[in-house]
Amino acid sequence: MPQLNTSTWLLTILSMIFTLFALLQLKISKHFYLPSPKPTLTKLQKQQTPWNHTWTKIYLPLSQSQ
Amino acid sequence: MNENLFTPFTIPMMLGIPITTLIIMFPTMLFPTPSRLINNRMITIQQWLTKLTSKQLMITHNPKGRTWSLMFISLFLFITSTNLLGMLPHSFTPTAQLSMNLGMAIPLWAGTVVTGFRNKTKISLAHLLPLGTPTFLIPMLVTIETISLFIQPLALAVRLTANITAGHLLLHLIGSMTLALTNISLFTAFITFTILTLLAILEFAVALIQAYVFTLLVSLYLQDNT
């Protein structure tokens, strides 16, 4: 039976190991399945205007009208 | 007669150099690598089928067993594609070679057993003794279970080899019988031809089923051991 001809066994096994463990797995690992979209928390906006931190009299317009 | 019947299973040589490596590597060319967000139809269909089969295969495993999912899905795709390509007339089927199937079965089975031994030594050893055996039967049962454990890789390899080889041989024999009968009686040739068609359909099914069985059994051995 030609399957029992052990002279080619090493070549067959080595080429199979290379194909199965290297080539095919590299190809299938590149399959990309999009994750389902999830809502993310937006970060709180940083205060852009530093001059509004201290409350001064000039912000009260009614107090200024004399 | 013996030589002629088994010649489709000899390693193909071209000018004295075995070209098995090219034939074994050929099915990987049929699975193109996806490179875009939305790919062409063939890649999309293959990706969809891969996702479907891997979900079906890995749903029964715990997270530790699911690390093997890339291995299982590539094993399944390799065996399926090789078997289906072997259905083409005059083609060489690598999975009909005992060497290749032994090379697939023994490392995978050994991997599952070693995983079980390293991580859960007591439980994997306890698998060797079924529950509820009478005390005086224990030595014999442990021997029997050990033997059945060591036969698993051999059974995996020989099952795949024998199924594919026998199927191809049957197709070859019944095909030549149909051809020989056309000169004798056309009606019997027609009956034989229907048998041949049914057998070809069965062979396609066998190609897929064998891949599934191989992968399923290895995953079962993994489940025992994770």
Automatic annotation (TrEMBL), chain A:
TM region(s), chain numbering: 6-24
Major location (coarse): mitochondrion
Pfam families xrefs: ATP-synt_8
Membrane topology value: Single-pass membrane protein
Superkingdom of origin organism: Eukaryota
Keywords: Acetylation, ATP synthesis, CF(0), Hydrogen ion transport, Ion transport, Membrane, Mitochondrion, Transmembrane, Transmembrane helix, Transport
InterPro entries: ATP8_mammal, ATP8_metazoa
One of the record's GO cellular component terms: mitochondrial membrane
Any one GO molecular-function label of the UniProt entry: proton transmembrane transporter activity
Entry's localization field: Mitochondrion membrane
Keyword Electron transport: no
One of the GO BP terms on file: proton motive force-driven ATP synthesis
Family assignment from sequence similarity: Belongs to the ATPase protein 8 family.
Protein name: ATP synthase complex subunit 8
TrEMBL record, chain B:
Entry keyword set: ATP synthesis, CF(0), Hydrogen ion transport, Ion transport, Membrane, Mitochondrion, Mitochondrion inner membrane, Transmembrane, Transmembrane helix, Transport
Compartments reported by the entry: Mitochondrion inner membrane
Oligomer and partners: Component of the ATP synthase complex composed at least of ATP5F1A/subunit alpha, ATP5F1B/subunit beta, ATP5MC1/subunit c (homooctomer), MT-ATP6/subunit a, MT-ATP8/subunit 8, ATP5ME/subunit e, ATP5MF/subunit f, ATP5MG/subunit g, ATP5MK/subunit k, ATP5MJ/subunit j, ATP5F1C/subunit gamma, ATP5F1D/subunit delta, ATP5F1E/subunit epsilon, ATP5PF/subunit F6, ATP5PB/subunit b, ATP5PD/subunit d, ATP5PO/subunit OSCP.
Gene3D superfamilies: ATP synthase, F0 complex, subunit A (1.20.120.220)
PANTHER family on file: ATP SYNTHASE SUBUNIT A
Superkingdom, taxonomy of origin: Eukaryota
Principal subcellular localisation of the protein: mitochondrion
Entries under InterPro entries matching the protein: ATP_synth_F0_asu, ATP_synth_F0_asu_AS, ATP_synth_F0_asu_bact/mt, F0_ATP_A_sf
Secretion signal span: none
Topology class, membrane: Multi-pass membrane protein
NCBIfam families xref list: ATP_synt_6_or_A
Listed name of the protein: ATP synthase subunit a
Residue intervals passing through the bilayer: 12-31, 67-86, 98-117, 137-158, 170-193, 199-222
Catalytic activity: H(+)(in) = H(+)(out)
GO molecular function (one): proton-transporting ATP synthase activity, rotational mechanism
An annotated GO cellular component: mitochondrial inner membrane
Family note: Belongs to the ATPase A chain family.
